[in-house]
Amino acid sequence: MWPICPIRGGLGVTELTDRFVRDGFVHLPGAVPEPVARACERLLWEETGYDPDDPMTWVSSTHWVLYRDDEPFVNAVNSPTLVATYDQLVGPDRWRRRDHVGAFPLRFPSKEEPLESGWHIDAAFPDRELTDDDLESVETMREVGFRVNVNSDGRALLLLMLFSNVGADDSPTRIRIGSHLDVPQLLDPYGSAGVDSQALSSKIEQASASRPVTHATGRCGDVYVCHPFLVHAAQTHRGMQHRFMAQNAIEPADALEPRARRPLSPVEQAIRAGLDD
What we know:
Blueprint: H1 13-23, E1 25-28, H2 34-48, E2 62-65, H3 71-77, H4 80-89, E3 104-107, E4 125-126, H5 138-142, E5 146-148, E6 157-162, E7 174-176, H6 184-187, E8 195-196, H7 201-207, E9 213-215, E10 223-226, E11 232-233, E12 245-250, H8 266-276
């Protein structure tokens, strides 16, 4: 029995669950209270060293921030709406509370295409135990091999957290609706060891090619709560304003078991549906 949770955005519990299992994500407007989200936005501006009022200082198309553990970010990822959503989609006491947020691909107007513009899913666990040196920056983290398996060890949910207003031209993340259902059968042959998600990128792109596309637009404080197998991609920033967003993982406290003979969480239900399709 899953809890009855207060969810913003006009979604009831049944609709939230059904939409998540069917589409692979739910958009929660105002999931982070605006004062908290705007405080995070100000801290991210400070991190860049850019002047918010002078676009001439926005010298990089993408400024990566690995993580932030300031109080506003911790409050953001643990907002009452989001905690209730984690309980609903993963299960009470089946996810780990976050003490930081990240990574952040902060994007600015540019003709450059981002490195992450190909269709993909995010990897979930490293090939080896991480060291302090690995955690120095996004660049050092990229040198570590990351994998994903059919049980989604290491990742129960993917959050796309908007810390600025994001319009259609402001490099919103592209999402293939329902594409999470195309992934489990591709991962299943690799068992618990999993596979480097980049090695499957072409197969993932091909398997989900017929899915309709939407974009993660919204206002500062909106959150897209996504299934870990949702296929998504970055795109060029054609707008005029900054785009601040966090790509945040919610980790499972207990292993997900989509083949278990017990009531499945919505995250597990979706994996099972993809396996049975």
